[in-house]
Amino acid sequence: MEIWTSKISLYIIKDFVSLQVLIYYHLIMENESNNNILSVIDNYPDRIMLSIAGRVKERRLEKNFTQNDLSLRSGIPLPTYRRFEQTGEISLRGLVMISFALNSTDDFSTLFDKKGYNSIDEIINIDNIKKRKRGGRK
After folding, report:
1. Residue 6 has what pLDDT?
2. What is the dihedral of CA 74, 79, 80, 83, to 10 degrees?
3. CATH: 1.10.260.40, 1.10.599.10, 2.102.10.10, 2.60.120.620. Which one for 45-105?
4. Which residues belong to CATH 1.10.260.40 in the chain?
5. pLDDT at 94
6. pLDDT at 4 over 70
7. What whole-number distance in Å separates Cα of residue 75 and Cα of residue 101?
8. Is CB count within 10 Å lower at the N or C end of the chain?
9. Residue 61: CB partners within 8 Å, gap ≥ 6?
């Protein structure tokens, strides 16, 4: 516990998101199998959302669109688009509409693509695995 508290003292908790990152950090430190905090921070939902918003902003600037231009082209209200660039929060419909306006819809085709295989045994046994039609009971 002493090591954990000394590492926390290096961080300044500014908001709730920082607190959540520290909780994840604590969980990783308890799990000896993975001590890489960067793997959690990089995959944290807010970071992913901000990363997507940053890439959308880059595409918008590459096409020399203002926020207002992209808002009009995508049919999204300007305040909603501004909030998206700042926080990464937007509905799935809004994100798809933005991707149409930026001509970037191909990226959605691989979003939840089929599972990749780690070994030849998984490929051989693929026919033995039942395809689920719904989730299991709790």
Report:
1. 41
2. 120
3. 1.10.260.40
4. 45-105
5. 96
6. no
7. 9
8. C
9. none
